[in-house]
Amino acid sequence: MSDLPPDLPRLRTLETWLQLNLDEVRRRIVVAEQEQAAAAAVRELPSPPDWLIEHGIGVGRRPVRVHAGGCWDAGKRSAGVPEDAARQALAEGVEACPHCRPDTLLGVLD
Q1: Are strands 63-68 and 78-81 parallel, antiparallel or unpaired?
Q2: pTM score
């Protein structure tokens, strides 16, 4: 025995109600898929390098300043370097940033 109504008008009404609910479920599936795709696309930002060397402008782009990683004063022309390279640059006379004081952090003082 079925729980469905026997007459055509009520069956059509039930069909319409089921179609509306199915459409809503499909819309929610699309939203959930979009949210899941967006969450998967978001990648964790890499941590900033521990040391930066800021380069000058122009041909040759000589190093002009050493920064600790994450320094607010490091410009767009800065590149991450290993600790040894930062020490070497300071030893060769490249200026230490007066804000983050990489020379103090590295123990390289005049």
Answers
A1: unpaired
A2: 0.58
